Amino acid sequence: MKRCIFCDSILTNRTRSKEHVIPKWILENLEPGFTYDHTGKWTTFPNKPEHIISVRNYSMLSSLLGGVCKSCNEGWMSNLETEFKPIFIALYDEQSPLILTRNQRTVIARWAYKTAITVNYSANYKKIVPLDQIHSFYQNNDLPQNIVVDVAFCKEVGIHHLIGGNRLAIIPDSFKGKEEFLDHSFVVTFQFDHLMIRLSWTPDAKIQVRNIPKITVYRIHPLDQEELLIQYIKDELFDSISHFHFFSTIFVEESIILKSSDIELVVQKLQKLRSDMSF
Fold it and tell me: Burial letters for 228-248: b for 16+ Cβ neighbours within 10 Å, e otherwise?
């Protein structure tokens, strides 16, 4: 018996709905000329040798998630899209600096989490967002603890999304369950033209998601300040969505104070990994 992944209600022919994985209004607002046909690959990256587990061809124009009820799809999810739309359009306009309020950043973070769920549960990939976490999000109308949302910009234009974990960490060997922690952490990243939105989650509050200070990344959530200025700077762009997704953050145990030499070592390792993986 299938249930709605959000509210856990039983899905019937009468109550079942289909949610566009990437909302149609976003695709309609992008500049013309993008390729919407993609190949979804589930691989063992960054393990070497890289092994392909599953491959599926799909179009973002018609990619749908069927495990949602009409009440969710036509109710709070539709309302969230309505709230997010003017913020996205302002973010997408790279010509003008943008000041985001706390409420606007909360909307971005909630939209990123909702869309990370729809992308994950429609993909030929393991389900990395736990169902109990999704149900809590629906019931409490609030993001799970330890969710981090960042925004950045990219040189390479396109429309993409990446799903996966993050094996890059500075965690003491004494930290219990290190491998389990890394296995259960997840990162989902979206790219719309130059704009990128990345959502990260760690199952332990003692482990922080820190950005490597090489290219400007804007922390949307948690909300540390009343207002946040975001601007597109041509000298502060990532080469591709892969660089932003895989190579610009590390998980760090909160008691560790990173020295500049530590960061340089991490950067060197990341550059070698990027070179090895042809990114």
Answer: bebebeeeebbebbbbbbbbb
Higher-confidence residue of 263 and 140: namely: 140
Q: How far is CA 78 from the centre of its chain?
A: 20
Handedness of CA 198, 107, 80, 31 (dihedral sign): negative
Question: C-alpha distances in angstroms, 194 versus 156, 230, 234, 242, 244?
Answer: 7, 13, 11, 13, 12
Q: CB-based contacts of 125: which residues, under 8 Å, 6+ apart? A: 40, 42, 54, 163, 164
Rounded to whole angstroms, how far apart are CA atoms 243 and 279?
Answer: 7
Contact predicate 269/46, CB 8 Å? no
Structure tokens at 116: 């990370």
The string of pLDDT tens digits covering residues 119-150 is 888 876 778 899 999 999 999 999 999 899 99
CB 94 within 8 A of CB 194: yes
Rg over CA atoms, the chain: 19
Other Cβ atoms closer than 10 A to 6: 25
